[in-house]
Amino acid sequence: MPPGKLRGVKFAAVLLPLLCALCVQPAGAVVVNGHDYRPLTGWAMENKFREVNDGRSDRFTLTNGAAQRLVFEKNSVTAEINGVKVALSFPVALDKSGVFFIARFDLIKTVEPLIFSPPVSPKKITTICLDPGHGGKDPGKQVGGHDEKTYTLLLAEELRRQLVAAGFKVVQTRRKDNYLELSERASFANRNKADLFVCLHFNATEVAKNEVAGLQTYCITPVGASSTEAAGRGAGHSMCAGNRVEAKSLLAAYQVHRALVKNLGANDRSVRRARFEVLCETTMPAVYIEGGYMTNPVEAKKIYDALYRKQMAAAIVRGILNYQKSTAPSALPKKQKP
Ligand SMILES: [Zn+2]
């Protein structure tokens, strides 16, 4: 190749991406409360999704050839992704002409990582760190003579048995009723070079005790967004170790949550985002399960039942296996190039 031509190729290779970064602005993009939003119709077209008319004007439903189904609701910060509720960082907007808009941030940080192949090559899960919440002087939630710390440990021991039977190596932050600082739990997982961190908790509420039931699964909040429940739980926007693997943590939380909700028939209280210390300080993909409400009489009875915990552990194992499968190369459709 003559030197002049080579220079031209080099010039184009350097300049074109720069120009594209400046000029590519998706059609119909708008700014809502300081955040970039784009019409869901444009995104759908680009990624080979089509609209499904479900007769609801406040909802926008999409499907594609791979039978994936996405449901977005006006003003809602929860989307439904293939039958599972997932928290968004910003509400879906509907303009006066009936066009639905979604924050670009949510497309990049939540929707796309769950429906397209992850951009990084997967690492096989060998070691799983289980973290039964609370312990020792910290009983966790206390309801009618039952301590949360007792049931998180019982669930962890059951889960340990099932994971070992499935071929995983399991390490555990505590195997008896002892107290551990949150930072000790994270550093234990890091020290043991775990490939996945699974934190186990149960929930309680003072409001509408008989009505509130179900499961919620947390993963790290992306930088630049508030946590799903921001109050008092590290609402800062700064980067932490957990953010380096946030796409994988989201996928792990999604698969574990999906398996729990589907297999237990439990109420889906969504995959949520939080900057809990253990999610921030662990360097591997990490999920934090709130496995039901001890304040709900029906759910509490199940939590205290060994057979139900066995089913719960089996669902978590299935979710972990699905997570492993979904990170395998070409398990999911690739994102379309705009
Ligand atoms: Zn707890």
Structure description:
- By secondary structure, the chain is an alpha+beta fold.
- The chain folds into two domains: 25-115, Copper amine oxidase-like, N-terminal domain (Copper Amine Oxidase, Chain A, domain 1); 127-326, 3-Layer(aba) Sandwich (Aminopeptidase), CATH 3.40.630.40.
- It is 36% helix and 24% strand.
- The chain contains nine helices and 17 strands.
- The chain has helices spanning 3-23, 40-46, 104-115, 148-165, 182-191, 246-264, 277-281, 297-303, 306-326; strands at residues 30-32, 35-39, 49-52, 59-64, 69-73, 78-81, 84-87, 93-94, 100-103, 127-132, 142-143, 146-147, 169-172, 196-203, 215-220, 268-274, 286-293.
- The strands form four sheets. A six-stranded mixed beta sheet has the order 13-10-14-17-15-16. The chain has a five-stranded antiparallel beta sheet with strand order 3-4-5-6-7. It has a four-stranded antiparallel beta sheet with strand order 1-2-9-8.
- A hairpin with a 6-residue loop joins β3 and β4.
- The chain starts with a helix and ends in a 12-residue tail after the last helix.
- Mean pLDDT is 88; it is low at 1-24.
- Zinc ion binds at residues 133-134, 140, 148, 201.
Please tag this protein with its features:
17 strands; Copper Amine Oxidase, Chain A, domain 1; 6-stranded mixed sheet; 338 residues; alpha+beta; globular; binds zinc ion; Aminopeptidase; 5-stranded antiparallel sheet; disordered N terminus; 2 domains
